[in-house]
Amino acid sequence: MGTPTLPTGTLLRLATAGSVDDGKSTLVGRLLFDSKSVLADQLDAVERVSRDRGLETTDLALLTDGLRAEREQGITIDVAYRYFATARRSFVLADCPGHVQYTRNTVTGASTADAVVLLIDARKGLLEQTRRHLAVVSLLRVPHVVVAVNKIDLVDYSQERYEELAAQIRETARSLGVADVHTIPVSALVGDNVVDHGESTPWYDGPTLLELLEELPAGDDPYAEAFRLPVQVVLRPQGAAPDERFRDYRGYAGQVASGVVRVGDEVVVLPSGRRTRVTGIDTADTLHDAADPFAGLTEAWAPQSVTLRLADEIDVTRGDLIASAVDVPDLTQDVEGTVAWLSDRPLRPGARVLLKHTTRTVQAVVRDVVGRLDLDAAELTPAEQLDLNDIGRVTLRLASPVAAEEYLTSRRTGAFLLIDAHDGGTLAAGMVGDALAATRHPEQRPVQYAI
Amino acid sequence: MTLTDTIDATVATTPEGTTPDGATTGDEHRLTQLEALESEAIHIIREVVAEFERPVMLFSGGKDSVVMLHLAAKAFWPSPVPFPVLHVDTGHNFPEVLAFRDATVERLRLRLEVASVQDYLDDGRLRERADGTRNPLQTQPLLDAIAGHRFDAVFGGGRRDEEKARAKERVFSLRDEFGQWDPRNQRPELWNLYNGRHRPGEHVRVFPLSNWTELDVWRYIAAEDIALPELYYAHEREVFDRDGMLLAVGPYSQPRNDAEAASVRTETVRYRTVGDMSCTGAVDSDARDVDAVIAEVAATRITERGATRADDRISEAAMEDRKKEGYF
After folding, report:
1. Is the pTM above the cut of 0.80?
2. Is the same domain home to B99 and B243?
């Protein structure tokens, strides 16, 4: 890829969070509308429905409510994805409803987010739910949080009120171990400081929401993390090769989960523990190079999808992890982790489940439910079971070992799913290790993602 | 760690990857938007091949499915694409698109399965609709083909930016044994850990282009020099007006009344989407090559389905209703 028409900007993944009536849909609608990402026919439809409902102004919230039941009930049920772009970068926005199953939705949205935009109502201030959202965002290790202090018009654009709330937000975020927090006074309804600076907040000289989102770093810095590549598939064309040169080709295809790999690097294949060297880093593009199809890339980094060639003919299959030989993850059959429980049926000790970690799925037994996280106090309280939308600590025994790393230091190789072996449903989002450590001891949070 | 309410000075760099004095930052190791989307799609396609028994990719010759198939070829090269492709043929497709479909399948040495709406009409399993459009009729042949071949994963080229019901769709979207989508009971999708587990009789629809926009698709077509059916580019065509759309005069779309007949004229048009001739509208356009199309799409004020699809105008929830029944 590389023609002049191509944008060189990065992709920032965002998630929204907020409580009921904070005006989140309105803010998202405003962001889309003012960044000119809403097209005429979409706006026509929204204006028509607004008129039908007897509203005086166009309800921008209608832009984001996609399902019939949502429009009929005036609520948002499920995470919706929105796309908008500026001259500088593109955005994927996971719009997470605040009230129905907020843990499930916020965890889902935050799991892939580079930044979370959290709304609070300037009149109401910080609610219990705001604190919970910040705790979830901290738990999932979202690198950046932007708190939009909304409805600033309804407190007469009071600088004093904003400063008071901003100080509370900073203090709460700090106590919960949130890595990086920004606050902005906005009025989603009027449009102040969303895309354009508002004339009514002359005392605010920081960036607008969109300006800030254009500046935040996208993704983790690959150089700050150790190389990991979970093998997805082994490419061995043999007789189906396009020509003779590829008949003996053998490559291990996957997406770099973290870090950087270079040709010549020594790597370890887990769980076998065999050591070898990277002899080639291929993509379909490099393999199509007429001059030398095996020249390949000199290095690759997260989250590129590549195919590695290795020096030795060792047994490598799907589910294996190719990792830096300098920084080798430990294998374990005993995982202690924090889970967000997403199923209607409660989790109890003794439950048999499947655990999906990177590209490996293994059987697991829930040894113990250690406790439930009280999001308000950010403390673990003893519990016998976990119910829908609970977050808690569990210990698991696995049928075979996985290279589970601390989620706190590795968002990709520290994450897992618990899956119902019978109906295949996703039961829980899991994070290896004491993910609450940062919540209780924010000063111990690794520095690399405090920008 | 300091917490600030304004952006840290070190972050506020000028162009991507450089500081004001021109030194490089860590951003040289960040993927561009298209690189990130390509890597994500390849990861999704490889996951499906690794975790399912019998995947199939929907392929119509339309631009999204052409891009998706291109990504599949890249995901496994130098091995061949390890699954067949399936086309649900309404019997009202543009002949040049069918020719393109067949040439692509032959070039990539793929197996093509065709589910024919016409066969269903001929033997009475389906009946023609009063409005003549055959898009909603595709659902049953599609579901029968999935069941008949026991496909357990079906790749579709749907994008979340297309339509508001699609904005709620997962990348891996479970369908019950009747092919139905239950939008209120979707699996949460966490990190990039896709869960494709399903019970016998159920299948999973997979959308590798979920996070792509129309503009991303076109920019990728330019970047990768991907061939498309010619009707995506401006050409002369005999058209007439119906319901605010420009329909081609052809074997499956004839003027139905005097007003429509009076509007027949030759115009320079192109197609933004390609589907059934009877309900896919053309747009006035001079965009004769990919760069011109990108410029046009970047400046347009109408969504792609709003401009060109009669079937989505039936009601606010037309797409949601079709999807619940098992449509793409």
Report:
1. yes
2. no
